[in-house]
Amino acid sequence: MPETFQLIPIAAQALRSRPIEAQRVSRVPWSQAAHQLAEGRLTLLGLWASPSAVSMAVLDGAHHLGLLRVDARRGSFPSVGRLHPAAQRLERTIADLYGIIPEDAPDTRPWLDHGCWGLTHPMGETAPQPEAPGPYAFLPVEGESLHQVAVGPVHAGIIEPGHFRFTVQGETVVRLEQRLGYTHKGTASLMAGAPVARGAQLAGRSSGDSTVAYAWAFAQAVEAATATQVPDRALWLRALMAELERLANHLGDVGAICNDAAFGMMLAQCSVLRERVLRTCDLCFGHRMMRDRVVPGGVAQDVDTARVQALVDLVAEIRATLPSLVALYDKVASLQDRTVSTGTLTEALARRFGAGGFVGRAAGRNFDTRKHLPYAPYDQLQFRVPCRSEGDVNARIWQRIEEMEESLSLIAQILARLPSGPIAVPLTPPDASREGLGLVEGFRGDVLIWVALDNRGRIAHSHMRDPSWFQWPLLEAVIEGNIIADFPLCNKSFNCSYSGQDL
Amino acid sequence: MRKFLIEGLTHRPLTEPAPGPADPALEKLGLQVQSAQHQRLGRSLAIRMVDAGSCNGCELEIHALSNPFYDLERFGLRFVASPRHADVLLVTGPVTRNMVEALRRTHDAMPDPKWVVAAGDCAKDGGCFAGSYAIAGGVASVLAVDLHIPGCPPAPIELLKGLLVVLDSAARA
């Protein structure tokens, strides 16, 4: 093994069309890669374990992807989080689930393991839970006239569970510390040994709002591992569904953010459009959220000309209505007063954490898998990736607005040029154990799924990395110095997934 | 903003008629609820929603209940922030082991009489997540469930039907 780290990049085309081979490195080059992450020469895309090794997906400055793997049979590996904070929660998860210890890690507290499972290291060498753990050690905060506000896991609204510990001075937030993991379902353990169809079902339920993106990323990973060539029509229908999903979620988010600034009219108007999108999805794909419609090998549902027309009409209706909603947002000064310069994310931090989606792009990190690690059919479609630099709540709203306009254009292009042909093929049975990576731009950012298939074509190991992993920690950073009453605004403008990050 | 306000005055509302008679299965469940000797609540129910580990799909559809098409509040149903104000606990998700205590405490904080409605396939028995080390099971593994609304996720109209069944039973009892 070489002792000087040199990334072996994998071309975007090869990434999704054939099995991926990890670049096996020893401990020294692994740590050198961690240094390069800390220096900003590489961006972390994912960090996960399998029983005997730890893998890391990284991106270099020219948007080339690399997959590194270090041996962990001795039960530990050199910590990446020691040098690069974006890796810390992922390493705590590896320690919780596999019992593989990141050496010299700065934060050794459990992350997903709340001491309730009745066992430890469920994915590694399992042992019964020794005894009920003591209270979680939140980071100490010292100073005059500070007090703490504890929120969650059960929140006041209709929202997923998670705990937020605010330390405030007067009204100003001095520190926010998140504690997540409440929705940990042990999905990876259910995946292990399961047939591919069952894996697709679970992947589509990792984060319900991104069910198309997850199902597509999972399908990409499996199709790459089995070198299956998916028919064109299936790929175009997947993109159609993915853009509808993005549109529906962005509409919901814009309304909900404004509602958190007590501007309910926007929520009402946006939720009407969102409902129209969901109803059209139901009509065209047989499910409002298009769940289980993307399957490994293709898609489960075709659309006929009448349904294509329904989608054309939907695009026309939203294009006719959206500008007046945008004008409404733009002209209400009291609303702008809440969103402008609130919860500002710096570009440096967005880059350091490799924040994807509207969180990263609204703060100047212009990365979009559809453009920078392209996959069909996006390489044949015309679209731009909007990017802003302000990084505040207002920028994240405008980012969504501009992304919706691009999605509408993409949907129109897809409907006009939908290729004919079959919508699915059977997977090519693998001849040996194979691995595949899937990377899909969901509405929230890039969803990365790694799957290792055994020689019978069953899932041996898998990992699903939600974009929220690299966005949640930034929410802690942007709220600092803001008033606590603006937290709902900041939180909704990030709209991170709890279920996606809790695994 | 003026444009939207004028439109609101001159256009018919988007709100759709209430769902028709519940299907036989839901009616049966409603009778079970009724038989539990519930106090009259005057056709008004306050709902506290708890996600006990869902994928967030159910939450999206519960949110949709408040949009102008379904307009939940016209039936006297409304979501409240505190369990202290709630008559109904609406629970989604397979109950994760990490959420068991929070779910139980939320239920304990509600005053009597109270009902538990489990929404979604996972809330029934853990759904596709059943069998995992991290899952306690369906909602019934932690709390006594009065009504279950199936679906993955249940469409808003199904949620509405289910909640109306609870409301009618509560009012008739």
Beta fraction of the residues of chain B?
Answer: 15-25%
**Using DSSP, what is the number of strands of chain B?**
7
CATH fold-level assignment of the domain at 215-443 and 450-455 in chain A = Cytochrome-c3 Hydrogenase, chain B
Based on Cα principal axes, name the global outline of chain B: globular
Largest interface: A-B, 53 and 50 residues
Structural class of chain A: alpha+beta
Mean pLDDT rating of chain B: 86
Distance between the termini of chain A: 33 Å
Q: How many beta-strand segments of chain A? A: 16
Gap between N and C termini of chain B: 46 Å
How does this model look, in words?
The complex is a heterodimer of chains A (503) and B (173). Chain A has helices at 12-17, 27-39, 88-98, 187-191, 196-203, 211-225, 232-260, 264-285, 305-331, 333-339, 347-352, 357-361, 369-372, 393-417, 472-478, 487-494, 498-502; strands at 23-25, 42-50, 53-60, 65-71, 76-78, 101-103, 119-120, 127-128, 147-151, 163-169, 172-179, 294-295, 298-299, 434-441, 446-453, 459-465. By secondary structure, chain A is of the alpha+beta class. Among the domains of chain A are: 12-125, 2-Layer Sandwich (Beta Polymerase, domain 2); 215-443 and 450-455, Cytochrome-c3 Hydrogenase, chain B (Orthogonal Bundle), CATH 1.10.645. In chain A, a hairpin with a 2-residue loop joins strand 10 (163-169) and strand 11 (172-179). The model of chain A has no long low-confidence stretch (mean pLDDT 94). Chain B is of the alpha/beta class. Chain B has helices spanning 2-10, 24-34, 57-64, 100-108, 121-125, 156-172; strands spanning 45-51, 77-79, 88-92, 95-96, 115-119, 135-137, 147-149. Chain B has a five-stranded parallel β-sheet with strand order 2-1-3-5-7, with helices on both faces. In chain B, strand 1, helix 3 and strand 2 (77-79) form a beta-alpha-beta unit. In chain B, helix 2 runs parallel beside helix 6 (156-172). Chain B is globular and about 55 Å long. The model of chain B is unreliable at 35-40 (pLDDT under 50). At the A-B interface, helix 4, helix 5, helix 8 and helix 9 of A face strand 1, helix 3 and helix 4 of B.
